[in-house]
Design a protein that fits this description.
The complex is a heterodimer of chains A (about 375) and B (about 475). Chain A is mainly alpha-helical. Chain A is built from 18 helices and two strands. Chain A folds into two domains: about 280 residues, no CATH class; about 70 residues, Alpha-Beta Plaits (2-Layer Sandwich), CATH 3.30.70.20. Classes of the chains: A mainly alpha (about 375), B alpha/beta (about 475).
Chain lengths: ~375, ~475
């Protein structure tokens, strides 16, 4: 692979194109996508009857079962990641970080979220996703899942064991060394779709301070909600339903509808052409919330700023899919240490002056993340009037 | 105390920001260009549809109210330095206690016939962007005069809309007064590979009007060639925007003359940024440096000096020279001194990628073997590390052995330090082993070690 001139300007005309600039085509696409998700989640199988039948041969081949709407969805999802991933790979073909990361999300989506679960069904094992853990896959943390995977087959107990290991050990350790990106922009399926199909819309994220405030409220509220829900389910299971009765079950099903379907699906993907590609990841995903807390408090990962070279042009902020005002840091020479950063590296790619670099080192993080490092005069020496 | 800053570019805004950080004075920014500060360096990206106007504003609108920085959009026609009054276009008087002139630049015009026709302009102000947009409609060819950075930016802008561009450059190679020969040629090749009609050693003779006599229709080169065009970009440098102050009590040369504390000859009046001309520039530096980076440093220094008690003012110190640019797809960085023509006492080692879009050049002193400067195309180097080496006069061998520390390219991208080492070996017969790889942990050890050595002179520009 050739990595010369990896900084080719790839964003020309983005704001002059109807589909990427919230024009009529963007609205039509948004209506189409939200419509698709609404039907998928909230209307019965029958709506997808014809489409499902179309996927029967593939489904029978892969898992020995006729297709259902979730199989159809998985197939379309994977197809989108591969197709748009191919487009992304061509667009950023001169940048090795971008290509490796994209090959990785394409691989994990195709292998671990599509082929392997299907193959497991073919082998009479329960369907299981190795790349989703509690709390994003909230089910894997519930007594119901333990009960089910604990007894389904002789192998399936290891699945749920792996899931628990990733939640409690894998996540903090990997995030300490690599930052949140090991998951969000290299492995995760939601991230995979955002990075490939969502890439043309990344600039639509809101960069304002008020959006950042809203983000912190929302994402941590969802985290609290999922922790509460899991806790309730465990208390309920322990008390045999004596304490809370049906409350925890209905709480869980409301969470599933509101967060799992309406937020992550309908809004999260359906609004790509209007709100950008990472709405769910930024405002809703409880996994991202936990990874973000680790990244902010205990991680080597940061984006460093190359001295005083920033020209405040704003390309980094504009193309940050997470809505981070990267420029606000860069122009002060301050390292970017933000809970929401998924480490996609696009800020460093679009920077026309080579100011940003994704790095890992812990020794001076407290100093380098200080405000206003591009200090020309030492203000400690000030003798004021 | 009422402090008025005339001009809301990077110099003026930086000054206002630091004044507010450290004081409670009444701060007012006056501009006739626009209401809100924007990044001048990003004008091209707005034209190319890469960012919206609001995306090139580094601060949200609430920033100014929150920080109590008043903004007034008006044109100042004259200054009464005696009465400490500004007079604007409507005849309003505005009193000040302290005044900072951050007036910026205007494009150079060298008296070419037709230079004031419609469709003939530079690219500096927001209004220039608007008129470029206006003249782009149906434009069949643009001619750009001048081999500087703005010329290339303009060429890239038109190129992004498929408008053919002819670039007239006086020199033998593109920008060869700034870049060494190999780099200048690389940039020239790169421009041509994008279809830019680059005419070297070609000067503008005149600009011809169309039938109406008002708008440009063609340029005439000094070879007598006539190139029809609906737009002429004048990008042969800029000069201080101080015409309205000439013949006032303010001492001016090409710019507003300032002492090392950025003070003018008039008490309580400072000048910063593009419009300031240093009476005694630092060794090796020019009296006027119309750069984003120096503007920002001056803004900060001026803020300090406005607040400092008499006698404790800071000397403006631009630190070790650095600059950056981008020529289409090729990024450019320079640290320290890299003369276009190497004088006899300097030598350099140069490596260029076989594809001709990346290069590295290290300049050093022949006799003492000390590193002097770094010149990079298509490769990113770390400013802090390069500055540290230059400041501490590291030997070329030490720099080469640790060159990985300077590498700031993205993860997984190819590294070319070894190539440079083998070129050095060919040249001198000395074999050097690369001791340091790319990456922040090593850099931090290097920088921390150096800063604990108390012998090292601390530079005010140290980051």
């Amino acid at each position: 692979m050739n990595t010369t001139s990896w900084s080719i300007n790839q964003q020309k005309g983005v704001w002059q194109n109807s589909i990427t600039a919230r024009g009529i085509w963007a609205w039509l696409l948004a209506i189409l996508l939200t419509g698709f998700y609404t039907v998928l989640y909230f209307f019965p199988e029958g709506w997808f009857y014809g489409l499902t039948q179309l996927f029967d041969p593939l489904s029978l081949l892969m898992r020995g079962l006729p297709a259902d709407k979730w199989f159809v969805y998985g197939a379309l999802y994977t197809f989108s990641v591969l197709l748009m991933g191919g487009k992304f790979l061509f667009k950023y073909r001169n940048n090795r970080y971008q290509t490796l990361r994209t090959i990785s999300v394409m691989f994990f989506q195709t292998g671990f979220s599509f082929l392997i679960p299907a193959f497991m069904q073919l082998m009479n094992q329960p369907e299981y996703y190795f790349t989703y853990f509690w709390p994003l896959k909230d089910y894997y943390g519930t007594p119901g899942a333990l009960q089910y995977y604990g007894h389904a087959t002789s192998l399936s107990v290891y699945f749920i064991g792996f899931s628990a290991l990733m939640t409690f050990v894998g996540t903090p350790v990997l995030t300490y060394f690599l930052g949140k990106r090991w998951y969000c922009s290299w492995v995760c399926g939601c991230g995979g779709l955002a990075e490939t199909a969502g890439d043309p819309f990344r600039h639509l994220s809101d960069k304002s301070l008020s959006a950042w405030k809203l983000e912190r409220w929302m994402i941590h509220s969802v985290l609290v909600a999922v922790v509460l829900m899991t806790g309730l389910l465990w208390i309920n299971s322990w008390q045999q339903g004596a304490l809370l009765g049906k409350f925890s079950q209905s709480y869980a099903s409301i969470y599933g509808y509101v967060i799992g379907m309406a937020f992550s699906g309908v809004i999260g993907v359906g609004f790509y052409p209007l709100l950008g590609s990472r709405v769910w990841c930024r405002f809703g995903c409880p996994q991202a919330a936990i990874l973000g807390i680790f990244q902010k408090k205990q991680s080597k990962f940061r984006i460093t700023v190359n001295g005083g070279q920033c020209i405040s042009c704003g390309n980094c902020s504009t193309y940050c899919e997470m809505g981070i005002d990267v420029r606000a840091y860069a122009q002060r020479g301050q390292d970017v240490v933000r809970a929401s950063c998924v480490g996609c590296g696009i800020c460093a790619t679009v920077c026309p002056r080579g100011v940003l670099r994704l790095e890992g080192a812990a020794s001076d993080i407290s100093v380098r993340a200080n405000q206003e490092r591009t200090v020309h005069v030492r203000w400690e020496d000030v003798k004021r009037l | 105390m009422r402090i008025i800053i005339l001009g809301n570019g990077i110099s003026g805004v930086t000054c206002a920001r630091f004044l507010r950080k450290h004081s409670n004075h009444d701060i007012t920014l006056i501009s006739d260009e626009c209401d809100e500060f924007f990044s001048r360096t990003a004008l091209m990206y707005v034209y190319m549809g890469q960012m919206r106007p609001r995306d090139v504003r580094p601060y949200e609108s609430w920033f100014w109210e929150k920080n109590r920085i008043n903004r007034i959009k008006t044109r100042i026609e004259s200054i009464d330095f005696q009465q400490k009054l500004l007079v604007d276009e409507q005849g309003n008087f505005m009193p000040y206690d302290k005044l900072v002139l951050a007036l910026g630049s205007i494009p150079n015009k060298f008296g070419w016939p037709g230079q004031d026709l419609d469709g003939v302009q530079g690219l500096y102000h927001w209004q220039d962007l608007e008129s470029m947009e206006h003249y782009s409609r149906g434009l069949e060819r643009a001619v750009i005069v001048g081999g500087g950075l703005i010329g290339v930016e303009m060429a890239e802008m038109f190129h992004s809309r498929g408008i053919p561009v002819t670039l007239l450059v006086r020199e033998k190679a593109y920008s060869d007064t700034v870049l060494p020969k190999e780099e200048a040629e690389m940039v020239g090749r790169h421009l041509r590979s994008h279809g830019i009609d680059l005419r070297l050693e070609t000067e503008l003779q005149a600009i011809e009007p169309d039938a109406s006599g008002k708008k440009c229709a063609a340029v005439l080169t000094h070879y007598g060639e006539r190139i029809p065009c609906g737009f002429v970009g004048l990008t042969a440098g800029v000069r201080p925007n101080i015409d309205f102050l000439i013949n006032s009590r303010l001492e001016t040369g090409r710019g507003v003359l300032v002492d090392p504390n950025l003070k003018t000859n008039i008490p309580d009046v400072l000048a910063i940024g593009d419009c300031a001309e240093l009476r005694q520039p630092a060794p090796g530096r020019k009296p006027i440096e119309a750069l984003w980076y120096t503007g920002r440093m001056m803004g900060e220094t001026a803020a300090y000096n406005l607040l400092a008690s008499p006698g404790s003012e800071k000397v403006y110190d631009p630190g070790i020279w650095f600059n950056s640019a981008k020529f289409f797809d090729i990024e450019y960085q320079i640290y320290g001194s890299v003369p276009a023509q190497l004088p006899d006492h300097l030598d350099s080692i140069y490596w260029e990628h076989s594809e001709g879009k990346q290069s590295l050049r290290l300049v050093f002193d022949k006799q003492h073997r000390k590193i002097i400067g770094f010149n990079l195309l298509g490769i990113r180097y770390r400013q802090e590390v390069c500055e540290q080496w230059i400041r501490t006069q590291a030997s070329i061998e030490e720099v080469l052995a640790n060159l990985g520390l300077a590498n700031f390219d993205p993860e997984f991208s190819d590294q070319y330090e070894r190539e440079l080492l083998s070129i050095y070996q060919e040249k001198t017969g000395l074999k050097i082993h690369l001791k340091q790889k790319r990456g922040l942990p090593g850099v931090l050890r290097f920088l921390q070690k150096r800063t604990t050595d108390s012998t090292v002179h601390t530079n005010p520009n140290q980051l």
